[in-house]
């Protein structure tokens, strides 16, 4: 049983190319460990440049064939997606190498620092990135372990989802989808929102209630009807809709002018080069958590004025022939609707494309996808979908994205299904005129970044 980071020197990550795994791998490498790992995407040649960037950090990468695990390996790290049938899990057991889940290892890391854990259904990666910038600007030299790359770090040639600072503070994403959020005991717990995603609402409320109990200080979004039920102290909470007077952090005056949003927090003006009201909410959440760490709203405003964003979160690829192309990680109903709405102030018409991921989650959220996406579309807007992304493993393919499109169309919305996404541009091109925003949405599929760039380049 691994109970301390002090006993680990040579960890091996199975699935190291994944966003959550690569972040922890880089963090541990940055603290002086000798990290190695494998990924099935290395076998298939689908890892993009992640392997090169991991190796540039000093992480030794192997094919997923068992060759990377030796008698010198003192820990094997797996995610919930790694099944016991994987050859490396079998080899680790044969060699009696301890096996730990990614979330358990992250809990050990969090226990070694003054940690701010960012929880909630939507906005975790963006808020984590904003918090990192704020604490960095404040001179606290923080560390971060995120589910997505910060553009400011990506520009330096890194994956961008981890950074080892010399200060006491660590900012992490606390994931509720696998229940691992209950393992953390942070200095500051931040709850952004609670919506149906992965689990039923009753179960989510129980999980987030434990997160609250485990946090020394706790701040919640009082504007979210479910999150506000878990308030520990309203003075520490934040409000973004003016309907929660007791909250100590209040946002007012939201405006979006093109690709710039502005608002005030407790009278302090903020301006950011980013899209959408939901990103104001993320910024307010980050400011509230930073305040509990002793950082003023004025310092937060100064940091966020230069915030460069998160990989594939409302990432503007550019404008061509009068069409703006935006790449976004949106993958649940609320996120898809928010992404669509964020593009509407900058475009006469939004043409949105979405690739759902996972047959089970798509079936679980079918009604919510239809209702949220249909509700976000204006009469002139359009939604297109391609078939559900299958990442492998055991599942029942008992639903198609075409069924969601049929239901959205039955509500009087403009909706089309293109099974093979490689045919999308040919089908959609006549629908794109000057003044249109083309929004490309999807998650988990590592080829989506290149797909979006290809669409933009071929416009």
TrEMBL record:
One GO BP: regulation of cell shape
Mur ligase N-terminal catalytic domain residues: 13-113
Domain Mur ligase central: 118-290
Ranges where the Mur ligase C-terminal domain occurs: 312-444
One Pfam family from the record: Mur_ligase
Any one GO MF annotation of this record: acid-amino acid ligase activity
Keywords (A to Z) from UniProt: ATP-binding, Cell cycle, Cell division, Cell shape, Cell wall biogenesis/degradation, Ligase, Nucleotide-binding, Peptidoglycan synthesis
Superkingdom classification of source: Bacteria
UniProt protein name: UDP-N-acetylmuramate--alanine ligase
Species whose genome carries this gene: Niabella soli DSM 19437
